[in-house]
Amino acid sequence: MSTNPVLNAIHTRRSIRAYTDDDLRDDVVRDILDAGRWAPSGLNNQPWRFAVIRDSTTRERLAGLTHYGAIIRRSNVCVAVFYNTESGYNRDKDMMGIGACIQNMLLAAHSLGIGAVWLGQILEKKDDVNRLLEIDAGNELAAVIALGRPNESPRAERISLEDLILKSI
Ligand SMILES: Cc1cc2nc3c(=O)[nH]c(=O)nc-3n(C[C@H](O)[C@H](O)[C@H](O)COP(=O)(O)O)c2cc1C
Question: 22, 35, 70, 106: which is deepest, by most CB within 10 A?
């Protein structure tokens, strides 16, 4: 394990899909969103927008829109991350920025002792998510992040670095 706090957070963050019943405070959720806000983006266009879903009835309905609904039901708060197409300039680059924004939030959550998982399968029902949350079509769902106090310590594997480097000259 690294003594560098950023490297350490990158290495020790895992997707957390089981949570305790503890409530996450609003200021902690805000700190996580704020970490997302500081992500890099092409032309600094910041094409991300957020919806915070704490309400259990709405989370239950959200859970019905993905195969991973059990995770949403167990979570304490969900953050839906949207692509604001009006601020966009290049879909590929805008989506990369949104990926950076989401990773910032995952790392921030981890550093604050909060478990998080990036949920992408729900994109198959992205229009239904907009309808449920009453978000206009100018904001396109990019992901949902489920959050809660961790109640598991999963492991994950990675491809070795040697197998990832195509060339080093
Ligand atoms: C674009 C994307 C979509 C994902 N969608 C889901 C999902 O729908 N459900 C889920 O349980 N995990 C989802 N994950 C989490 C991955 O399964 C997880 O990051 C991967 O297995 C590596 O594990 P780790 O995050 O613990 O290192 C997604 C991750 C990414 C980046």
Answer: 106
Sorted by where each begins, the domain ranges of the chain are: 5-164
SS3 61: helix
- C-beta of 165 in contact with ligand 1 (< 6 A): no
Q: Which residues, 6 or more positions from 4, have their beta carbon under 8 angstroms from its beta carbon?
A: none
pTM of the model: 0.98
Q: Is the CB of 120 under 6 A from ligand 1?
A: yes
Correct CATH for 5-164 of 2.60.40.790, 3.40.109.10, 2.60.120.560, 3.90.550.10 = 3.40.109.10
Cβ 99 under 6 angstroms from ligand 1: no
pLDDT, tens only, 85-135: 999 999 999 999 999 999 999 999 999 999 999 999 999 999 999 999 999
**Nearest-angstrom CA–CA distance, 101 and 164:** 24
Nearest alpha carbon, ligand 1 atom 17: 15
Q: How far is CA 77 from CA 2, 53, 65, 89, 114, in A?
A: 30, 6, 16, 31, 11
Question: DSSP letter at 150?
Answer: B
**Separation of 71 CA from ligand 1 center, angstroms?**
12
